Amino acid sequence: MARYIFITGGVVSSLGKGLASAALGALLQARGYQVRLRKLDPYLNVDPGTMSPFQHGEVFVTEDGAETDLDLGHYERFTGVNATRGDNITTGQIYKTIIEKERRGDYLGATVQVIPHVTGEIKDFVLADPGEGVDFVLVEVGGTVGDIEGLPFFEAIRQLGQELPRGHACFIHLTLLPFIKTAGEMKTKPTQHSVKELRSIGIQPDILLCRAEIPIPEGERKKLALFCNVRPSAVIQALDSENIYAVPLDYHEQGLDTEVLDVFGMKDTAPAPDLTRWKDIAHRLSHPDGEVNIAVVGKYTGLTDAYKSLVEALVHGGVANNLRVRLDWIEGEAFERDEDMIAIRLAGTHGVLVPGAFGERGSAGMIRAVQFAREHQIPYFGICFGMQMAMIEAARNLAGIEAASSTEFGPTSEPIVGLMTEWTRGNDREVRQEGDNLGGTMRCGSYEAILLEGSKAAEIYGGVSISERHRHRYEVNIDYRDRIEATGLKFTGLSPNGVLPEICERMDHPWFVGVQYHPELKSRPFDPHPLFASFIGAAKERSRMV
Ligand code: GLN
Fold first, then answer.
1. Is 76 assigned a catalytic role?
2. How far apart are CA 77 and CA 245, in angstroms?
3. Is 518 one of the annotated active-site residues of the chain?
4. Which residue, among 274, 255, 279, 323, has the nearest Cα to 29 in the 3D structure?
């Protein structure tokens, strides 16, 4: 039977619980164990699909089309294990299930209550089959202890602590040890209070993972152990790491994995970890051969969490080329307010990337960025919305279709981009509708595409058949293919039925690729996505010229 590790957070949010969980998963993997990571999100939304990226950050899409928390992206990148719909649950989903059951009469007249019904659903989710041979299931509880909406989740994991066989559960609490500069002291009180709160609901943490700015002095470690009722060796220091891929190494050095194994009585029998690849990547990231600048012209640039996977995929592309990738975040709207800004911000850059976005705001600025990159031979990578903008740019500026637009921005006589139902010959495509994204019309999850033999895309992928994850509602209108291709922008990847454009590229340009899907979701540090590796390679070429 799998063993369960519950990761909770205290004191403040944003301490990096997702990253800590992912890093621990990676360490257990490095010892030869199989892991699965799951996330419990106490908010009431059914999934983050309808939340503003400014509120929630990126929506991470799984292979099977679930819109999930961005922490699942960390899990995948650190462990290489694909997450599924069954690895992220929210209060909204739980209540939805319960209310449906109640309406069907499944509760046979019982009064439906938080305990045992809500907690029961949470436990079922945690215990759902983690897959063949999984040794450890790591379960992260979103939010911080003390949040009202988190209570049923804490109660459920408390119950599991009793219900699982002895030695099969471990509780890790992630906290913050603030350093008060004026007093020159590290403070343990917030952690003590947080653990007190946790213990008052029946959970005694086994391990404290403490985020701190300076190393924990011995006296403070002893004090924490004493007041929080843990062993001194179970007070693990978590300083800021040089980069996120150094986190597993730093945690190992502090003894996190050893302490976890000790909780399970496996410390002496567990194989030593093989951390070679983590050392290698941490070294490569801290010793690049040079750097390139990429301008990201997007919509949610004020919050880089909104583009979490994109940022990581660019880092991976850098790793593939031994380069540090510097990002220049530009709001599309900035290019609308001041046209001179375009040359100022883009002329010296080594690559321009327009990422995913929703709605019209900023799109005119993004279209200008596409035009500038096209005209100045700057490597251009358009992702999802970024491909749609590249199509509209070509249509308006080169094909003479002045009214070219996307129906996402309102009615248009020239729907270069639109809802498939608005223009396809019959609705000959299956659209998965199980997601609850705004109206359930988004194409989410992995879909195949066929690439044109001899295209740059086929060369980059090293084949003509690919599968990538999508998250969008609008499609490029295939009916405009001939007119747009005449401008040099070729449709080099299509859905297997030939109706949905998936990739476009310019033949008259060093590197100009647009993709309708989100390749960043599948990029891994040890397996950089070929498009990102190639894009950064092209940026490197340009960096030699400007
Ligand atoms: N808004 C566009 C659509 O829905 C693009 C979405 C995206 O970039 N993820 O098709």
1. no
2. 10
3. yes
4. 274
